[in-house]
Design goal:
Elements lengths: L1 H41 L6
Length: about 50
């Protein structure tokens, strides 16, 4: 019973890390898209 609980806890931790990483990735994607659009408008560089 203990290994099953440990495995379940590990799966929960992995799921939480995946959700957190996905949220950070999504925020970075939106910010980079916004800054790229603003950069194209201001100096034509696009922050690339």
């Amino acid at each position: 019973m203990a290994p099953c609980d440990r495995l379940y806890q590990g799966a929960n931790d992995v799921g939480e890390m995946a959700r957190r990483y996905f949220r950070i990735l999504l925020v970075n994607l939106m910010l980079s898209r916004f800054f790229r659009r603003e950069g194209l408008r201001t100096n034509g560089d696009g922050f690339s």
